[in-house]
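Hi R.,

Here's the chain you asked about this morning:
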Amino acid sequence: MCGIAGFTQFSHKEGNEQTLEKMGQAILHRGPDAGGTYCDELVGLCHRRLSILDLSEAGNQPMYSEDNNFVIAFNGEIYNFLELRSDLEQEGYQFKSQTDTEVILALYTKEKEKCVEKLNGMFTFAIWDKQEASLFIARDRLGKKPLYFFQHQGRFAFGSEIKAILALDNIPKDIRLDAVYDFFAYQYVPDPKSIFQHIHKLPAGHYMTVTEKGIEQTQYWDISFARTSTHSETQNKQSLIDLLEQATKQRMMSDVPLGAFLSGGVDSSGVVALMAKNSEKPVKTCTVGFTDKAYNEAEFAKEIADQYNTEHHEFTVHQNVADNLEHIVSFFDEPFADPSLVPTFFVSELARQEVTVAIAGDGGDEMFAGYEKYTTDDIENTWRQRIPTAIRKGMLPTVAKMCKKLPGALGKKSHSLLTTLSHEPDMGFYITNSQMTDDHWNKLAKNDVFASLGDYHPSDLTTKAYETSDAPDHLGKILYTDIKTYLCGGILVKVDRMSMANSLEVRAPILDYRVAELAATLPSMQKYRDGEKKYLLKEVFKPFIPKSLLYRKKMGFSVPLADWFRKDLKSYAESTLLQQSEGLADIFNMQQVTTLWQEHQSEQRDHSAMLWSMLMYQMWFNKYAR
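And the predicted structure, written out as tokens:
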């Protein structure tokens, strides 16, 4: 795993090797082992290396093709590179290193942009073609590795993180207001936007070509739910376990110490079981726990660790969050508010003390319908189908407003449910997903913010993905929506930033694109059956995981936010949220923010989710937007 950055100089002189080194310094945490630059009159490339394969200097980058015409800077891992290398060697290619980087370079030399279709892995890379004066940049199918680019007034620059781009001179920091609205709705800024007006994300499954004439983006992959498997459940189960075992074995290849994240949930436990099956030595496992038992999964992780005799390491998050929060959040150079970023940082920090590569169970919930929200959505849709449309759209909004006036949790829940039922399934799924209701936004946002946004609404992201999906049923459509939005913009961003903050590479077998494609073909009843989430995945892992763990209620990687704001984080959060003249105060009526804070402190209501988003926004603003 590494970090890449660079720029073009077709019409604007960006700099030289020193400028590139400055960009590299901004992402040093992604690759502390080595660094390199390439610069000519038209382009500059920078690379920071975290050595995983071929630890010799032969693996350093930027790397040159045999004829010296192509130069590559690559971030990621290609799991099928040995097969690709063998094919290329049979065609006469000779390799100087044992790296996957050199294989990409040779494959691009042969097949140009079509090379991405043969790569199985997580990647972003940039290849400069000297003869054609063109820069080719690609991102993996599911968006496991990030790629940001700046485009404005003839200038172009890119980087694994925004901070590499901000290292250049005179980069405008105009904040994109619709991205701010998106952030408070979803807790992240969705692709292809970034929080800055002139910085964008290359979407997953896309590549781009940059020349003097401009930029051209192309989508080379998308996940399809259109074809439903006609095989029996037993056959699908066998295909899935075979593919998961193969994907896990491929991800265990490393020239540095390797281990696993273990939460005690279905996905990470299943992956650890497959690792143990294919390892001659005890697997190193790492887990994070909390002193609050309601959030602590460490005992479940320990049960799996004991079953597979792993070399187990455990870290307990005590009430010292405020001491670490500024450091942790500083690695997000656009606002990000999934609270599980905190334990993800700590488990990555713990793992890095033992290993350089960790294997994780990410992807199971999005591919196989594992979140509680899918149950909620299923219940809502059942009612939606039973209530006549005229009543649902005509009467329910009025009744919902009446329920809103009822005291306590009953009124709040009734209002939320009836509001959701009054909408169509795609909008209902947005409401289920959204972290800030329209009512709260309407109370908080300033008048000039409303005026600037016009008729924009964050639900556009959900409804567009829902409508784009070729799935034959509603479950398929919302799984596609989550894969294209929440997985890519939320889960994978969190894992990438928090692992790279600790110079740790994380690999996820369930996110092998072949597993994703297989999961998309499974009938919905084999993913979500009569309220049972991840049905077939659990059937696959049943021989490996105790029944008591396999079917226990999902906890997720949650944190005790409400308590944090009333105790450990109270002083820091109060000064950061309520005593600022810029940032949050540019968007929200601070009197309303103060009211939320006071209601939370007096335990009238739990506003911890909204307060956390606000805190994350203000902390980001103080670090990157001033």
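The radius of gyration is 24 Å.

Let me know if you need anything else.
M.
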